[in-house]
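Contributing new records

If you add data, match the layout below exactly. Sequence lines come first and carry their own label; structure lines follow with theirs. Keep one chain per record. Anything else will be rejected by the validation script.
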Amino acid sequence: MPLYGEHNVRNALAAIAVGHAVGLTADEMRRGLSDFRGVRRRLELRGVARGVSVYDDFAHHPTAIFETLKAVRASHPKQRVWGIFEPRSATSCRRVFQDDFARAFSESGADEVILASVFRASLPDDERLSVDDLVFAVSAAGVHARHVPTVPEIVRLVAAEARDGDIVVVMSNGGFDGIHEKLIAALAG
């Protein structure tokens, strides 16, 4: 199966159980799993420029972020892994997951964490995710984390600092202002 991560192994085991229950042969299930290329926006390779791979992932919950970055780290143990996150969903913009996000980024194996500004800036301060507190917590755990507020600033920073072999995983439940194409163009340019 050409997908990364323990979560995809669990999904494949569930598919095998269902396939077995409906009478598929082992060969049919093996072919199906080996041909499956995943779904759009789930660790989808958007392009490679200057030796830097840029992935898109819909991750916007701490568990999804953790599993995604952990899968990339396990599959690429010697490469530098960047996690770029846009807090955009209704829950990811709120403090409810403040500590969970800190653990997800700190324990996932990411080398570089870049956090964009909270998309829903109109939330009251006492309800809104604190990106500065998140950067502090992730940095205190020994991971290089930064708050880089806007897409143009993120693109400039990654284009300047990324090197051949790096894996960049962009996580948001939205379009993130076309960051994937902008990153690839800046890296290529």
